Amino acid sequence: MTTVIHSVVLVDDGTAQEDAWIAFTDGVVAGRGTGEDWRALSVAEAIDGGGRVLTPGFLDIHHHGGGGAAYDDGAEAIVTARAAHRAHGTTRAVLSLVTASVDDLAARVAVIADAAERDATILGSHLEGPFLDVGHKGAHTASLLRALDAAAIERLVDAGRGTVRQVTLAPELPGGIDAVSRFVEAGVVVAVGHTNATYAEARAAFDVGATLVTHAFNAMPGIHHREPGPIVAAMADERVTLELIADGIHVHPDVVALAFAGAPGRIALVTDAMAAACAADGAYELGGLAVTVIDGTARLDSDGAIAGSTLTQDAALRLVVAGGLPLPDAVAALTTTPARVFGWEGRYGSLRPGASADAVLLSPDLRVQAVWVDGARV
């Protein structure tokens, strides 16, 4: 059965094509074109896009929950949080876990592995900790941060049964460079983050296989004219993608624009959302730490540190476009760029023929109107 969405502005592959159509068959993109050519197809359902914007489904490779639920809290919480973000266009996601004991993290990545078997839109887990610099811990429990060691790495990777996709670590810690190599050999993408790394230390991590920076500018040294730090090291390295939280709180909009200019095609927009995303202000918990959300900003009760966000991917899209970024570039930062981090080009984050039929229909002011996953409207 073929579904066609026609009369849209198709934003994909770095371009915006007016009066476009796309066809979905058996959960994949079967074809695309412009004008009335779709009428020659055998179509079970034709949807008039009315000149609205159609993009690939968004990927979020760093977020902790939403809809009042956190991914740390088990199978039901995972379902709740995924539904909340899916309604905002995030069709596929890597689920992030905050710092905990190795025992707890092993159990949690196993739960996510089970969830991924039931739900193909769950692409695996991201370990944000416990191998972080205590001086840049952000909203992580200091007492649970620990040294890098081979036994802990092996246990966590094994518990995920092939679904631990990403780990954030501070490469300057003792054993950090060796740990980067161990994770990469296990097929895990390594992100430099929550770190005090110098420019040279970050470059050393990239040279042994780290390819990502966790929420660039946050929980790491800033850019200094004599000490450029990990951000400049990443911008200068074509192998490295930089995550960015575009909520207007974590990073000033002008610095967001600076990042896109400094690393064109290598910015992946992430939400770093916690349970309060798509939920009310109030009291929450993140990794065992008390958090209060006021006017959509989440901060630790203990010291006022930012504790994740309440961002959704569609809101991030609107912010960067309002800041002057061309729409095709903004969409790429939510789709093709994060997909490329994990080698998923042409499968997710794209509406090329043969890709998974995940799509988001947006109003002219970039509000979500409809979402499809594997060709089915959700």
Number of domains: 2
Say which CATH homologous superfamily of the largest domain is assigned. Metal-dependent hydrolases
The CATH topology of the largest domain is what? TIM Barrel
Portion of residues in beta strands equals 25-35%
The percentage helix is 25-40%
Pfam families: Amidohydro_1
Keywords: Carbohydrate metabolism, Hydrolase, Metal-binding
GO molecular function, one term: metal ion binding
Organism: Microbacterium telephonicum
Structure, described:
This protein has 378 residues and is an alpha/beta fold. The protein folds into two domains: 2-55 and 352-377, Urease, subunit C, domain 1 (Roll), CATH 2.30.40; 72-341, TIM Barrel (Alpha-Beta Barrel), CATH 3.20.20. 26% of the residues lie in helices and 28% in strands. The protein is built from ten helices and 21 strands. Strands 1, 2, 3, 4, 5, 19, 20 and 21 form an eight-stranded mixed beta sheet that branches. A hairpin with a 5-residue loop joins β19 and β20 (368-373). α2 (102-118) runs parallel beside α3 (150-159), α5 packs across α6 and α8 (313-322) packs antiparallel against α9 (327-334). The protein is globular and about 65 Å long. The mean pLDDT is 96.
